[in-house]
Amino acid sequence: MKKKVAIIGGGIVGASAAYYLSSLPGGNQLSVTLFDDGSGQATKAAAGIISPWLSKRRNQQWYQLAKDGATTLMTLARRANLSTDIYDQTGTIITRTNEKDLHDLYVLAQERHEDAPDMGDVELLTAADVKERIPLLTNPQPGIYVSGGARIDGEALVTNLLKQAERVNLSVKHERVSFDKQGNILSSTGTHKFDNVIIAAGPWLNELLKPLGIKAAVRPQKGQLIELAVPNYESQENMPVLMPEGERDFIPFGNGKLIVGATHDDEAGFNLTATPEATQDLLGSARQFADYLTEDSITRTKVGTRAYTPDFAPFFGRLNNYPKLLVASGLGASGLTTGPLIGRLLAGTLIYGGTPDWSNYEKPLTNYLS
Hints:
CATH class of the largest domain: Alpha Beta
Radius of gyration: 21 Å
Number of helices: 8
Strand order of the largest sheet: 9-2-1-13-20-19
Distance between the termini: 35 Å
Number of strands: 20
CATH superfamily of the largest domain: FAD/NAD(P)-binding domain
Structural class: alpha/beta
Low-confidence stretches: none
CATH topology of the largest domain: FAD/NAD(P)-binding domain
Oligomer: single chain
Order of helices and strands: EHEEHEEHEHEEHEEEEEHEEEEHEEEH
Shape: globular
């Protein structure tokens, strides 16, 4: 008899877990059901940059998770045969306007490269070099180029991973569910018992855990981005993505498409309405580097809700008082980088059992769950 597994949440962690539960050895002995009502999911509203190596964050556990997450994505892209519309290793350019800051960043890049070979080539670029690589720019700045960096379409990624898992052992239910006090899932069709449940519901985690008497230190953060129509440089469809100092990320997707974002709104809670203020913030940031952009250039706006913890670090693992339940949340703005690795780790421990030590990646769960 096949082991019954549920996943609550179809974002980056849930979709990655579903994919690995269908592709890792032993996955054919599982029957997997994923529940997601599709509302507010951060991943579906996200397009991101995979380039964690030059982060100045002091949390070394987060850096190790993000560094290994970038490597996981490189492997996943090959293994899942992801198209370049979903994941493309275009390289990233991180800019600095101060000459000393730029030099210090270059030194950091060389140091980090020693234990992160997946960074690829590291180059110091003048403003003219940056303009040559990203011809969309009218006001380029000098920066550091890292060839291992990539751009990723979050919505396209989770859609692809779930479709692949559905061919093997996954069933997707488009609805919101809850728990009873015993940890069984309550859905529109009644009460369901599963052998294991992965809870990957982002900022909705508190709502889900409430019947179990567990409180999570997680808050919602609204994020908005804009998509713009730009000149199509057919000879440079794989332009690097730009991480400007003090501004929003600038992500060319080729075929005349540019994404800029995202915002970080701590006050909006679960509100999914795009605001003119955020749109103007994003457009103004984009115009710092491409002054021909106007409101008429905007073709689409997307909004999602991220989950953050007080120390901005993610957490994941098995709940002590409910050992059949595994949880992950708090990924924040780095979800597209860290989520696939977290999904793989949860899937692996669910299939193979044991109590793996993930202390190199995270602080104890008791820091976030009470």
